[in-house]
Amino acid sequence: MKPAEDRPMGAKQIELRALGPSDKDCFIEVLADAFALDPSFSYFFGRADRDRPACLFLSFMFDIARIKGDELLGAFNDGRLEACSIVEHPVRPGIGSALAFARIAARALVLAARLPRRSFARLQRYMAIARASLPEGRWRYLVMLGARAESRGKGLGGALLDIAIAEAEADPLCAGLALDTENERNLPLYEGRGFRLLASHTLEGTNVFSMARPSARREV
What we know:
Elements: E1 4-9, E2 12-18, H1 24-34, H2 39-45, H3 51-68, E3 71-77, E4 80-88, H4 95-114, H5 117-132, E5 139-147, H6 156-170, E6 176-181, H7 187-191, E7 196-203, E8 206-214
Parallel strand pairs: 5-6
Antiparallel strand pairs: 1-2, 2-3, 3-4, 4-5, 6-8, 7-8
């Protein structure tokens, strides 16, 4: 997307732009709030005393997205970050990718040392299940999308999702956009934007629904 883009939301102008290093603390704050009651974070970190491990995980996700060159986008209202997304690009071969992998592996070791062992094991289990459901091909992947609780229902998440869809469609080498959700009530929302349910899994009582929206150039 462009470095900055303004969209009218009712009577307000919402700025949509890429997130940089100075936005990291606000990114963590927004998504920690967004996922406070989400089934995925309950599964990863438990239901009590999870603020610290959740913030460590979000810090890690921000860092690796920047290392890999994935899309970190934010929706700002009057200069305040209200919603965020991470969209992962297909892996690009080459020396740069190898170096990025080494940097990510180093950060993963640090995360493993700082998280409760059970939480790190559950994160690994979840990622293995989720990625195994992806169709073959070069897919973009919506890693995270969330808005502050007080900002939900204002179209901010939808605006970020629309950008992710449009950029997947515009990429001639991309098969489409994939995602996972743990909230069954989200399925109609995603289906309304062209996503299809590929698979569903249950991890210790937590449901995981894998979905994909194929590019207009391709059928799943």
